[in-house]
């Protein structure tokens, strides 16, 4: 079967070193197997979107020599498909009218945030026009999968998270539902992404099971951190990568991913570097966690 992978950034800011690492890992993992690599812009959360960021991300990837197959998929054009999935899941969902305050008072703080106490599951509301979220019922059977980097990972959705939201009270589809619907639509069978999404995966597998969709293979790569030990992210204003020292930055990505890549001066251009990466990529060398801080070019100070 043809391997199909993807990179799916949110246009909430420019590409930073951490997202370039994720793009590189997913790209090499599929290209080495002669597979397809797709690009998806996860632009569902319009309020958090930064104008021009999607274009900037696409141009930066292009400048770095990434080549994607097919048209770029934009999630904001996929709303009808999410509605269809929501309707299909109806027997497993219910409306939730709880405020954040109620959940914090009645629920308890878990490892992944507030565990929903199940209020609206136990006392169903007469459906009304009041703003409400849609939650999916969970069960107490652990959901486990084997991650290519992290090994076996299990979560009991009911006790660790509670019934979770698939349509937000503000009318936006939750990431968990959109990503599952789109991975299936694009035929993605290999997901390589940052470890911050590891604990989202059981929810996604559960939705795949309810929707009768195939489960991709998963690999969660370590997150890049800044000198303060914080994950590089748009939220903590990780600097955008520049396109001046592309070979150097890509070599830093490969080193970050544990690959024994020769020094940057060995490569005259990004093409020769990608050739090396495709020929030599080895997922087994990717470290489980990374503790070394790095600057915007992924170089340790
Ligand atoms: Zn509720």
Question: How would you explain this protein's 3D organization?
Answer:
With 301 residues, the chain is an alpha/beta fold. It has 2 domains: 4-80 and 181-285, HUPs (Rossmann fold, 3-Layer(aba) Sandwich), CATH 3.40.50.620; 89-175, HUPs (Rossmann fold). It contains 10 helices and 12 strands. It has helices at residues 17-31, 53-63, 79-88, 100-106, 119-122, 157-160, 175-185, 201-211, 246-256, 270-280, and strands at 4-7, 36-41, 73-74, 93-96, 108-110, 113-115, 133-136, 143-147, 151-155, 164-167, 190-194, 217-221. The strands form 5 sheets. It has a 3-stranded parallel sheet, covered by helices on one side. Strands 4-7-10 form a 3-stranded antiparallel sheet. Helix 1 (17-31) links the parallel strand 1 (4-7) and strand 2 (36-41). Helix 1 (17-31) crosses helix 9 and helix 7 crosses helix 8. The protein is elongated and about 65 Å long. It starts with a strand and ends in a 21-residue tail after the last helix. The relative contact order is 0.17. Residues 96-98, 119-120 line the site of zinc ion. The site of zinc ion has 5 residues, from helix 5.
